[in-house]
Write a structure and sequence with these properties.
mainly alpha; two-stranded antiparallel ribbon
Length: 92
Amino acid sequence: MSVNHERGRVAALSRSRTADDPELVTARINLRAEMLTRHVAKVVAQAPPLTAAQRDRIAVLLRGGAAPPGTTTTVRPDLGAQEGNVVRGGAA
């Protein structure tokens, strides 16, 4: 499905359903999944080739696991508040 399809489904269901309606909840989950899929596809298309270890770390996160021990996330002060100003890496 597409983001637009899922967005329309959520809009249509939310007109006549309560917020905890199972079908509406599922539609919202599907919308979020489509939005995430679109974002991941965009990021992957722009990213340099990843190592096997980097792909494994990302796969763990997508499967709902925690980042592996020793993995850090920091903001580079030299870049200020720019979008994408995050550096991720393993323990030194």
